[in-house]
Ubiquitin carboxyl-terminal hydrolase
Amino acid sequence: MFAIPNFLSLLMSSVPFRFFCIVTVLCNSFQNSEGGLYVCMNTFLGFGREHVERHYRKTGQCVYVHLKRHVIEKVPGASGGALPKRRNVKLFLDLETNGDLNNDDFEYEDEAKLVIFPDHYEIPLPNIEELPALVTIACDAVLSSKSPYRKQDPDSWEEELQVSKHAKTLVQIDNGVRIPPSGWKCSKCDLRENLWLNLTDGSVLCGKWFFDGSGGNGHALEYYKEMGYPLAVKLGTITPDGADVYSFDEEEAVLDPHIAKHLAHFGIDMLQMHATENGLRDNDIKPRVSEWEVIQESGAKLKPMYGPGYTGMKNLGNSCYLSAVMQAIFSIPEFQRAYVGNLPRIYDYSPLDPTQDFNTQMTKLGHGLLSGQYSKPPMKSELIEQVMKEEHKPQHNGISPRMFKALVSKGHLEFASNRQQDAQEFFLHLINLVERNHIGSENPSDVFRFLVEERTQCCQSRKVRYTERVDYLMQLPVAMEAATNKDELIAYELKRREAEAARRPPPELIRAKIPFSACLQAFSEPENVDDFWSSALQAKSAGVKTSRFASFPEYLVVQIKKFTFGLDWIPQKLDVSVDMPDLLDINHLRAKGLQLGEEELPDIAPPIIIPDDPRAPDIDESSAMQLAEMGFPLEACRKAVYYTGNMGAEVAFNWIIAHMEEPDFAEPLAIPGCGGVTSAGAAGLGAIGLDNQPPEEMVALLTSMGFQRNVAIQALRATNNNLEHALDWIFSHPEPEEESESASDVMDMENNANANILAEAGSEGPRVKDGSGRYELFGFISHMGTSTMSGHYVCHLKKEGRWVIYNDLKVCASERPPKDLGYIYFYHRIPS
């Protein structure tokens, strides 16, 4: 029997088999690594060959299972299939295969060994005869383990679809039905969304009603119960690669291997079909000018790019928002230096569980994108072979951000889900994490931070108040009234309605053309302040507010506010073209402070109205009823209004969409420990007990606006968790009060990284990198789809003097970068 060092710890760690999992911690893929993967038998974390020595030196753990996959060319004449045949089916069952090698020419051979450090003593596995039973069981558990992400978040993993039992024997009625390419409508009602084509007789019927008010009247299911025709395909999901098929008999989504033939029966050519952005409607087949084709540069033969900085990222299922933001982030030198430049130090000082360390995972992701190890061009021999077979397909190996996404979305209900998200919200979320976790004085997010001067004027007394706040991006409204092609838009809308009524293909899309100067002008114009309380009048009055830059950032992020709400409260996007400039000068927006002749408003805080019952929540019942009329539970609506600070039904609707899957969604609102404030003088943090912790969502909302976390908590406590009053409180208390011992106790409860950030701010205020307001465009993120809850994101970056498109795993030289259709733009300062 072998004498294994650290044998006792190995035996002890072999007990809880149900927790075994393999996590590749410091490298992005073991498949592309010649050294394979080393799994620590104490922590069950996986390391590449270049990092296992570091882990051994740091922890002293010396027993590892070495996993290695060999890609072998099949012998001519060997049997094959659509997927490679594995010779050792027990090994690595839950690890992803290399999609570039999923063809009939290759197969996998998996190899496993038990390795003892520091001498690299190897024991082949399996080895039942010579290894102790517990060691053998432990090794088998590792080799057959499931992905930890599948365990932690099973709902976000799609079940593997099964072939329908009706697919092969489906009888299709030859009734002459032909399905047009557009203008679909339910044959039993007037609905034009969530439509399903019955594959037996060609009936087009609506699906079930959805929680958000969309969907249908369930006529497709009723028709199955009446006729017994089992299979239906969802219109709008048909592409050359397949379609969404549902079996009413089997009551689940299924695969139909004969879908092309079944669709051809009704005159549908799969090769000519395109999926819609949200999968719910495809009444309008996208013409050549659709944003999907323009933004992704479809139809052009784009040249693949390889090497450092040209690495793609795998889409994990609606994770393109994350990929697009991270590609832009790691194109910035300050982020490259902070993480990848400090890789040895960050890895050496990472905690024992690096999967939960933000800096480690940022470094791992950045190294994967910038090293070039996961973006290698195919060998010349492979290209020649592909050309000879007339099946040349560019290889896009790339990396998978699964571990990174699991960490940065931890505790965040929206980002932790498998739904599409807003790239702008994720950008701010990421900056918040960088702020909380930066090491020492080096904070790469400093390059985005700037100060905004807000000038508020009382219209009656004409007195003014100047305040400053921190921000990280410039939000520009879309000035629709300034469209330069209004006549064309009116004519297009008339033609579109006529085509829809006649069930004809829609006319070629005409997109509103908005001058960038109009958006910039709309940003700088005064806006009315709702419920403005004038300290000069000691009463509510009309007020206007203008915003200017108190400092200009090193990197300016500009968001075009394309998303709005329709009459049905469903988020919608303005499909517009904005002529974004390559060179941008906003020096004229520099703040000037209090001007000669202006008189400041008195520094008097507005009175705080305390309800008779201090524990009674302040809820705008009219907004709650407005949401309830849309079909949501009343108690859920009241919670939504409360947790969004009574900021209206529109904001509360977003909260509902994000939280409706929670088990207590419809439960009555419960506010534990909501102790009231008896006077304005008790607003200091030290006067409030620890049981009055404000809701974390409201704190996060205020911190996302640029306020410090301790100030946000202090303001919410002082105003009984009323978000609107909290904002007034912050602006009326520009100088933070000295924290008492109780406040220090509260800070001790916060994350250490948060405490570092607050301590750094001190009396000097936020750190900014002020300079000239002249910028040059170097990147933009574009969104395709009708709302932030659906669609797809891609990123364009200017590197080495040319534009490059990053579309998930695909990284190619851009031929026609659609700069006018972007959503978030990245500018860097031009040195003066």
About this structure: The radius of gyration is 30 Å. The CA atoms of residues 196 and 234 lie 4 Å apart.
